[in-house]
Write a structure and sequence with these properties.
alpha+beta; Alpha-Beta Plaits; two-stranded antiparallel ribbon; 2 helices; about 20% helix; about 20% strand; globular
């Protein structure tokens, strides 16, 4: 079960550096590749606006 980024994302970039498998891509709202996500939760732990949650 991969994590998802909600519309609350501010595209701050904090999560990208935390992802060990580079599953997050940039955009107006960042996206997580569900096939690459290992469900580690590192991105959710550092998101300052709590926009990342388990799918």
């Amino acid at each position: 079960m991969a994590y998802k980024i909600s519309d609350d994302c501010t595209a701050c970039g904090t999560c990208i550096d935390e992802c060990p498998v580079e599953a997050i891509s940039e955009g107006d709202i960042y996206k997580i590749d569900p096939d690459a996500c290992t469900d580690c939760g590192a991105c959710a732990d550092v998101c300052p606006v709590e926009a990342i949650h388990p799918a």
